[in-house]
Amino acid sequence: MYRPPSLNTLRALVAAARHRSFTRAAEELGVTHGAISHRVREVEERLGEPMFERQGNSMQPTLAALRILPTVRQSLELIASVFPEPPAAGHVVLKVAVLPSFASHWLVPRLAEFHESHPGIAIALDPRMDLSPVGPQGLDAAIRYGGGEWPGLVVERLMQDTVFPACSPAYRERMGIESEQDLGRCRFLRNSWQPWTPWFQRAGLTLPEPADSQPYDDAGLLLEATAAGHGVALVRKVIAQDAIAAGRLVRLSAIEHPFEGAYHFVRHPGSPPARTAAVLAFAGWLKHRLDGEFTGAKLQHP
Questions:
Q1: What is the pLDDT of residues 18-54, one digit of tens each?
Q2: Is 173 strand, coil or helix?
Q3: Pick from 157, 160, 207, 161: nearest CA to 180
Q4: Three-state SS string across 74-139, please?
Q5: Among candidates 144, 206, 150, 155, which has minimal Cα distance to 181?
Q6: What's the rounded Cα separation, in Å, for the pair 76 and 67?
Q7: What is this structure's pTM?
Q8: How does pLDDT run across 224-270, given as a tens digit for each residue?
Q9: H helix or E strand, kind and range, residue 227
Q10: 46: closest CA among 96, 5, 103?
């Protein structure tokens, strides 16, 4: 009988990819460096492809790893949401649907801050791309990106995202990119929902819409492929800022183009008072956090 990799194996793969280090992954999971290496090797043997390649002191995920990591992360998060820790007395657990890219690249690294300020509220994230039901028989709330027209729900606009070109530091150096005019000799990575042409026009470039690469449906996967040095991509400001701050990505132009739609916080108007109070606390923190990072501010051009 076929058996998929164990949860410990998948956790090891995700931790190694997140830290870009087997040693730091081992410290997080409380195991040895050798145990991480063994579990990564198990995945490589099953798929017949390497999962990491060394670049300096960093272990960078390969394109094969980048293809499977979003699904593995989402699967682990979904399993965790099915078996949450038992709530303490007076403890409220909110189940919130969220886009996987927003969850992994922006929300999760900041969620501990919310828990510290609201110890009686736990957030169980449900990463998904579809419009899952919000209400008494479904989720407590959702963070969606779109036009904001969801009948029967209370919708609060959080912010609109923008896109701009970015690549890895190594790719920028290899291609000698100094200005927007140098982008014509680069390989363009594509998102299924965001064509390059509007940004080209805003930047005054007469380049054709790229078509020589397979588009990425997930913005987080596109970001990871870009950070791994596969080319230049239009990345979203919200989910790219941590990678830029960490030096994994470099911004190639100060010119931004609006990404159609906006982030919205969605809740059901008929929730019980105690849950409504917890939902509003989370919505307020989320809005305050996003406003503090992005309202009236621009990411710095390198």
A1: 889 999 898 888 889 999 999 999 999 999 999 999 8
A2: helix
A3: 207
A4: HHHHHHHHHCCCCCCCCCEEEEEEECHHHHHHHHHHHHHHHHHHCCCEEEEEEECCCCCCECCCCE
A5: 206
A6: 16
A7: 0.69
A8: 899 989 999 999 999 999 999 989 999 999 999 998 889 999 998 87
A9: helix 219-227
A10: 5
Which residues, other chains included, contact 43 with Cβ-Cβ below 8 Å and sequence gap of 6+? Answer: 5, 9, 13, 51
The total of other beta-carbon atoms located within 10 Å of residue 293's CB is 15
Strand, coil or helix: what is 257?
A: strand
Residue 201 CB contacts under 8 Å (≥ 6 apart), including other chains: none
Helices and strands (H and E) in the chain: how many:
11, 11
Q: Exposed, middle or buried: residue 97 (CB in 10 Å: 0-12, 13-18, 19+)?
A: buried
Residue 176: DSSP 8-state: T
Strands 162-167 and 233-236: antiparallel
CA 172 to the chain's CA centroid: 22
* Residue 156, H or E segment: strand 154-159
DSSP string, 11-44: HHHHHHHHHT-HHHHHHHHTS-HHHHHHHHHHHH
Q: Which tokens sit at 247?
A: 């030096």
